[in-house]
Each structure stands twice: as structure tokens, then as C-alpha cells.
């Protein structure tokens, strides 16, 4: 699907509806982006069919591709060539925050061991960790991204979530963010005093060691059932606007 190529997160829903004694199945695509979008997919045989709006009881307005392009020009003052250039740019270089969103949403379905994570799913945990990180370093985009994205690999490969997560965001985050995510499990070993002496010595000597320790503290604190958290969209919007709010 083209949405996969753009790195857009979407949910596919098939709804069974019975109307006037006839049963039909409707296919909907729900897109989570800057604005929520719902698309209804129909069989090609219905291409010329005039559907009726359930709200107005009138035929739904239609537009050909050329008519849609003209509507875009009128509504957004963007000509078709500019629009094509934007789409080509999106295709070659997806928006990194759209990529982050698409990786975070599936964490909602990742249930964790309640012995270590009484708070529940991996998304709820990640948003809690982000909240604590925001209290510690509200101006630090790299640190906040490490906190928010540290467990994204759990929805990809639960057996090696660190490597899977790092691979999925390669090229979209800084070296510092990657390093913090790569070593966040080591922070717990340091806290539990189960890490080897040589490994601990190497980490202590690293320039981002103190940040790693803080990330570990945030990770352990983000395990509270029923805690208040921001939504994914709120968290990503905040991080995206850090430069504007705090300056470079």
C-alpha cells in the first residue's frame, strides 16, 4: 500500500452493516496524521455509482483528479507542480515525526510482564518515561526522543527490542539519541549492580554517561498504573517545537 511507502501509520477496519435487509461489508482506512483521516474503499465495480450522504441524504460530491488538483490550488494556494514536488520529497525523505508516530502506535498492543511493568502496555510506559524525561530536561530534543522511543523495538522484535528499535529509526535520530537507546538496558544493570566492572568503567568514561543514568531513572519511574500521560501526538508536537520554544 502507498501509505506504507510514506511511513504513515494507519488502521484497516472492515465493518459489517445490515440495511434494508441487505448485508454489506465496508472497508475503512483510518490514518493518524496531523489531522485524523478516514477513507472508505469501494470495489472497482462501483466506480460510477453515486453514493448518498448519510448526513445530508444527498448524493456525495465527486471530483476527478484534475478537479481535486484545482480544489487544492483554491484552498491552499499550491499549484499541481508544487504539490507533485512535495509528494516526491515525502517519498524520498519521509517526515521523521510521522515515522516516530508509526512506530509508537503499535506499542499500545504490546503487553508487558506485570512483574516488571505493572502499568501495562509498552506505549503507556513509554509516555510515562517521556513525561519524567520532560521534567528533567524539557529543552533537550535528543534526550526526550531517547525516552519516548527507547522501547519501540518491542513491537518489532520482542526478543531483541533494542537492536530492532535502533534499526527502525536509523537516519532519523542523532548519534546521542541512538547511543542512549542502545545502552538504556545497561543503565538498569548499573542500578542493580549486575554489570561487569570493565563494561561499567567504559560507560562511566563516556561523555553521555550522566544522561544515561537519568534515562534509567526515568525508565524505572515510568511504571505507575493509571498515571496521567500526554498523548503521542502531544509529545511529538512538543519535541518538534523545542527549537522554536527554546532556541537552538
From TrEMBL:
Domain HD stretches: 125-191
InterPro entries the UniProt entry points to: HD/PDEase_dom, HD_domain
Superkingdom, taxonomy of origin: Bacteria
CDD domains, sorted: HDc
Pfam families: HD
Protein name (database record): HD domain protein
